[in-house]
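Quarterly update from the structural biology core.
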Amino acid sequence: SYNMVVCPNNATTRLGSWDVQYDPLNSFDGTTGTFTAPKTGLYTVLFVVQMLASPVQADSYLEGMWVASNGATIKSVNSFAIAGTFMTPIICTGTLFLNAGDTLYPQVSHNMGIDKYPRFQGTSPGGGVTSTAFNKLSIVIQ
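Predicted structure, tokenized:
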């Protein structure tokens, strides 16, 4: 449902509750959002999260980050200059080096003024039906 993940204002939220579509090496734990590198190499990673339409305060941001156990990170920020009520997206992508056994997970943080909810399948607080197509995650070894 839409409230599977709550992203509180001024806090960091690790993204879990993923529905795994394809993972031939069983390297990704969809519940926790943790990927464990099966072998050493360069990994290209991507997550896209679209928050439900809700109030956003002016001069705020939504930050996405990949965090690896070896200290590597990838960070993206989407800023919102004006206040309003709208959907807020973040796309966080890049390539990083992982050793076999290193872990990696996605997280978000924001200061938009209220708790945010990524769009999931089900009825949203506003009464509309949401779609699973709004949130995606991909990890590919080079």
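The domain at 11-141 is CATH 2.60.120.40 (Jelly Rolls).
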